[in-house]
Amino acid sequence: MKLGLVLRLVALFTVLALPALAAAPISDAQRLREGLAPGFRRPVVLVYPALDARPLGATAPSAAGSELFDAFIAALSQYSNLDVQPPARTLARIKARNAWAAREQFARSKSEEGQEDYKQVRLDAAAKHLFEAAELYDDLEYVHVDPRAVARTQLSRGLALREKGDDVDANAAFTRALQADARLRLREKYDRPDCIAAFERARTALLVELPLPEGFDKWPKAEPASTDTFLLRARLLPADDKRPERLEVLVIASGGVVLPDVQPVAAPDAAGRLAARVWASLPFGRAVRDKRSANEVRLDAGFTWFVFGENDLGTGIFNNVGAQTSFNWTLARNIGLQASFKVANSGRDREEDLRADILTFRGFIGPGYEARFGPWRLDTHVGIEVASPGRIVTTDNVYCKQFPDDPRFCPEGDVSIDDRTVVVGAGLTAGASYDLVDDIYLSLQIDASEYLYEVTDTALGRPVGAAVSLGYRFR
Amino acid sequence: MTTTAKGRAACAFAAGLMLLACGPEHGFSGAWKQNCDDPAGGCPQDGVELKDGTVVYALHVGRYGDDVTGIVVRYTGNTYDPLAECGCYIMQGGRASDGDLSFTLKLVADGNGGGPGCAAPDDRFGSACQDALRTPKCDTLDFTLSGDDDQLTGQLVCNAVSRPVQFVPASGKTRRTCLDGASCAHLPDAGTP
Hints:
The structure holds 2 protein chains of 2 kinds.
Chain A: H1 2-21, H2 28-34, E1 44-47, E2 51-52, H3 64-77, E3 83-85, H4 87-95, H5 100-119, H6 123-140, H7 142-145, H8 147-164, H9 167-180, H10 193-209, E4 229-237, E5 246-253, E6 256-264, H11 270-281, E7 296-311, E8 320-332, E9 335-346, E10 359-373, E11 376-388, E12 392-394, H12 398-402, E13 416-418, E14 423-437, E15 440-454, E16 460-474
Parallel strand pairs in A: 1-3, 1-4, 2-4
Antiparallel strand pairs in A: 4-5, 5-6, 7-8, 7-16, 8-9, 9-10, 10-11, 11-14, 12-13, 14-15, 15-16
Helix pairs in contact in A: 3-11, 5-6, 5-8, 6-8, 8-9, 9-10
Chain B: H1 3-21, E1 30-34, E2 55-64, E3 67-76, E4 85-90, E5 92-96, E6 100-106, H2 127-134, E7 140-147, E8 152-158, E9 161-169
């Protein structure tokens, strides 16, 4: 009875008291006040230049909108846990992408070709080339780099389509032209009246709906996916009968939109409140230990292939393919310990003297040297290998291969059988791994071993092979 | 990377691919029958009386690298009906390369383990078949064929007389047994290679 009471009290204490004894969670604001540890991994926020949609309206935009955007970026940069990249650096990052300059040149040439086609009234060719240029510009995120060039391309495309009679696509092109450059207008007496009317309809429709420009809320294909990087895109929206001028902000992660928010330009402390909301929507970041520090553990699994370099069976070389898992532990800077386990099944030699698959288990453990170069890590280990090649059945009598169960053709002595054995030897590995994203890496390793002790004689030895694996780093 | 280094890397890569490509050589393995839809198939005319050359052959080939063995089953007339089976022989001295296949059938006991295949001991195949088994026209039949996995064309040589034959792949499993030794007891030799 007393025991039952004691157990109930212990249970009650566990439920009520232990959570209270645990450390209270610390807010992000408090963590920010306490300061960040050295090597703190800050979320990167790539701020794009704000697209100004205000000139769509009749009234001239105020200077307060641009000032609000600048103040918002300044306020966001005050949060020291974020790595805020201002628009100029974001554009530099875009232009640093692979073959960007060549692709930009190609897109511009397509646009010029299309506009020349339009001048020469080659409407089909103009529509085609301008569409290709627009697609290329989209891939380059060129609307953030040179919005007027994108707008000109889309406008010419819209005019060509309109003259071709394709009004639906023409209207879409006019809309995209205005989304790139809201100041764009057609001129009376210079452009066709029906084109001017269609263009104006597209502008007034935009003013009502203000849809997001194409790709505005999407992660660009050219930007590597990352859980630590976020895009911040903004638009300045025009005032209308019901709403004042306002700043719209989108925070975009590689998985989708994190935060859409809008603040009136004239609202008190709009910049501070917008920055606070963006900051609250983003992860705080995390403390990162020195990558070369001790106790980093990497675990990977993948495929292995090897051949036995020493083969006294009289068969040709045969492949062994299977699965492997590897455990790497960084003990100290540049010093690590590796343990791996492989299981593989053999194929057959060309003559098929090997009559049954050989199931081989291989285990390895040994210390080694590791070095890291950016996302690359190179390592080499020397250690002990313990292996167990499976049952080996061989014959060089072709009749034993075709008629194995007929003693008239296959005498008993013509088939050799070696049972499973265990061997011990020295092993050497060399590998390289590449960080794919965050703590996930791809590893390629080659290995070779020399068997020094055999429990029972085996005709196989000196395995040489490779392994490719996908792994995760625990820190 | 210099040109030489690139060349070495390419060679190492190619060598690795070649090593991975090493594996069993199975070409020609499987069941084949004479192509009786084509005059080049060497099949007999209907109604011709049974003697050597008035039979058709089915090959059940097992290739292991350069070595070949298997079973050749002989049928009377122009049919592969099991009831028309008249002799089953083990391929001997079989060799194969990329496009060539050759082997020998021993139709009589040679005192060195070679011998005829076996027909059923009863008379269900008729006396003509039994006579043909006991007194073949030649001691050995040599097949020399060439082709690919879709067709084998060549010569069948009996007593220095050759005739053209053509084989095409046959459906069904590759046969690996003639009749057992007891069934062959009535013949001069049990048919060991």
